Amino acid sequence: MKQVYLDYNATTPIHPEVAAYTRQFLYEYFGNPSSMHWAGRAVRPFIQGARECVADKIGAKADEIIFTSGGTEADNHAIKGAAYALCDKGNHIITTTVEHPGVLNTCAYLESKGYSVTYLPVDGYGVIDPQDVKKAIRKETILISVMLANNETGTLMPIREIGAIAKEAGVLFHSDMVQALGKIPIDVNELNVDFGAFSGHKVYAPKGVGILYMREGLDIENLIHGGHQEAGRRAGTENLVGLGAFGKACEVVHQEMAENVGRVERLRKKLLDGIYARIEDVRLNGHPEFRLPNTLNLSFGFVESESLLIGLDLAGVAVSSGSACSSGSPEPSHVLLAMSIPPEVCQSALRMSLGRDTNDEDIDYVLEVLPEVVGRLRSMSPFYKRK
Ligand code: PLP
Questions:
Q1: Is residue 214 predicted with pLDDT exceeding 60?
Q2: Which of 67, 151, 181 to mutate to test the pocket of ligand 1 (most atoms within 8 A of CB)?
Q3: Considering only CA atoms, which of 167, 163, 171 is closest in space to residue 89?
Q4: Average pLDDT in the 117-138 region?
Q5: pTM above 0.85?
């Protein structure tokens, strides 16, 4: 059976060039970078090289990059680290209702420790109004956290404007940029961010590596205590395989960005137009224009997304539902609910995210099987029959 992978926002396969480059860290360069001897000395330039490479691709300086275990750790480090460091100044944090759990649950944890969090609402496209951020700032506000690109809908937030507001108010600004890296150009200075979270496995590097961008001169509390690695900001022996791969992935993904983005955008449009032409009662969730080039989130009326996902999986197509499964029971997506989408429409949402290996045959195949699966499920729905 043909297999089609349309879940690149969940994770990406390792890029062949990244895999080839990384092999040396499994065998040849195995030393502990903290060791004084030849084996330790030999690996240190690779760490610096990866740091410079990642920094270059986001407009940062190498010293502003802290390697972490992933996007979640980077979010935690920035938010908890800033909250703890600034607790004498204030206890108020501003974020949005559509953030990734890496931000939302960190904020909820801080609330349980006495911090106060404002969750700003979004409009029907999933976008927040920068003026709402401005109005929410109080004298106790110590941090603003707004994601650049939403993982479920692909909608982009007005980060530059929010960054300017934060800067003017003298409030630190963190942005979860995990989904944007490699898909759109990022310059941390243009966007006025103080902290940025990134993850390797969304850009064709392995899982378990990420970075926290932290603006030069800032000093926040550490999340992980121990050795002196990462200039004393994140303890633990460096994940050489992961960070080496992340550096290489940033290089190759940015080399390929112009070509891949154009192709992926064309394929996404082909998929959407094809779906509209073949299936009725389909709704696009998220902003029609200000969005990632690779992400589609669609609701199919009278169909449960979990059944749709299973039906597509049986046909070899890997996608994701717009719902998060908690303890086995499918809950409507918090992102779609926050966009004031009715719960039954949220529960019929499907996320399809394309990537560098997606091709025309994949899209043709999905356009062949998706109408069949939707049609079969609708034929079993009493509500659809009565329509
Ligand atoms: N933030 C966003 C927007 C994400 O999409 C993800 C992963 O799905 C993360 C954070 C977490 O990254 P990681 O899996 O590296 O912890």
A1: yes
A2: 151
A3: 171
A4: 98
A5: yes
